[in-house]
Amino acid sequence: MEGLVDFFRSLMSMPVLASEHGRNVDNLIVYMHWLMLVLFVGWILYFGYVLVRFRKSKNPKADYVGVKSHSSSYIEVAVAVVEMVLLFGLAVPLWSQLMDRMPAESESTVIRVIAQQFGWNARYPGKDALFVRQDANLIDAQNKWGEVKEDPNGKDDFTMFNDLRVPVNKPVIIHLSSLDVIHSFKVIALRVCQDAIPGMNIPLWFTANKVGRYQINCAQLCGTGHYTMSSGFLTVQSQEDFDAWFATQSGGGGDTATSFE
Q: What is the spatial distance between Cα 209 and Cα 135, in angstroms, rounded to a whole number?
């Protein structure tokens, strides 16, 4: 079955896959296309049968009673059953796995991401693995993160703009929010897509399993510069390369990269 699914993935020219949960997402997409293909071929054949079976030369007199068979009802029930199997057998369990089985933050790379018009701001906790304390009441033009400046945990935090980096084969948890309007954090290669809503802290997680540099897109129309949201990239590195990069960044107190441009 997996070989057949891989064949259809190739046939459909699906984008590169770089996350563990992404295969289940692709499988769901392939199964849905199989269902649509069966329905398309089935209804085309039925349409052809009707044209021939009920052509005027064989039925010169109209029959106002119509077809008495319940075959179409049976077919509709069968289609509904298949759709329920896809929904409750694949889609819901996949959603549950991602939402209800989030890994422990102590075993993950944790990043705070704030979307804005028009870019992605990322904050890493530094070597102590502790973020600065935040207070929504402190958010203003000079303190976009709502930092409690007196909190010592934030001394080694650092920020990046349009440049996220994560280690391969390790869970990543992103706490997502927005500075202004609704955005949507989407990395196609990771099969990740989550709305970023002002005033809300929404967690999402994934485990990248392929080293590479992948584009971040915004899946919500967010203004005249919406297209520039695709200037952000998420780079998946080996653990060694990530650790080396992390060591050069931590300790800058949020001044190592331009944020909130």
A: 35
Residues 96 and 110 in one domain: no
Taking the whole predicted model, whether its pTM rises above 0.90 is answered as no
Residue listed under structure tokens 């441009």 = 261
Q: Give the C-alpha separation, 180 to 184, whole Å.
A: 12
Asked if residue 257 has pLDDT above 70, the reply is: no
Mark whether 92 and 140 lie in a shared domain. no
Q: Is 16 exposed, middle or buried, given 0-12, 13-18 or 19+ CB atoms closer than 10 A?
A: exposed
Place of tokens 């540099």: 213
Question: Please, which residues have CB within 8 angstroms of residue 110's CB and are 6 or more apart in sequence?
Answer: 125, 129, 131, 172, 173, 174, 175
The residue count of the chain comes to: 261
| CATH number for the domain harbouring residue 244 | 2.60.40.420
